Amino acid sequence: MKFAALVFATILTLQTHAFQFRANAQVYVNRTYGEVRVANYLNTPIICNGSAVGVTSTGRQVFSYMNQVRILPGMFAYLNVYTNNYEPFLRITPNIFCRF
């Protein structure tokens, strides 16, 4: 009985290996194009969700989303944001979370 209670308590206290972390994304911006690149440097595939928000010179916000994108080890995922030549981008802000 004590052994069964010990096994049950041990199972309850185990942590799963799946957790969420904020991805380190590289951002490239020029006048009409913005790109956010997420790399997987881990030994296991990751699944990522997120968005990229581009702000133009007139204050307009342009959004791009990714949902449940699977990135294999050593591979990349891209988010692209576009605008016209008359409203150039000021900045691109990524917000990407990944999990195992």
Shape: elongated
Structural class: mainly beta
Average the pLDDT over all residues and give the rounded result.
86
- How much helix, percentage-wise, in residues? 10-25%
The CATH topology turns out to be: Immunoglobulin-like
Unreliable residue runs: none
* CATH top-level class: Mainly Beta
Instruction: Describe the largest sheet.
Output: 4 strands, antiparallel
Our count of helices gives 1
CATH architecture tag: Sandwich
Whole-number total of structural domains: 1
Radius of gyration: 20 Å
> How are strands sequenced across the largest beta sheet?
1-7-4-5
SSE series: HEEEEEEE
Strand content: over 45%
Description:
By secondary structure, the protein is mainly beta. The protein has one domain (19-99): Immunoglobulin-like. The chain has one helix spanning 2-13, and strands at residues 20-22, 25-29, 33-39, 46-56, 61-71, 76-82, 89-99. The strands form two sheets. It has a four-stranded antiparallel sheet with strand order 1-7-4-5, with no helix packed on it. Strands 2-3-6 form a three-stranded antiparallel sheet, with no helix packed on it. A hairpin with a 4-residue loop joins strand 4 (46-56) and strand 5 (61-71). The model has no long low-confidence stretch (mean pLDDT 86).
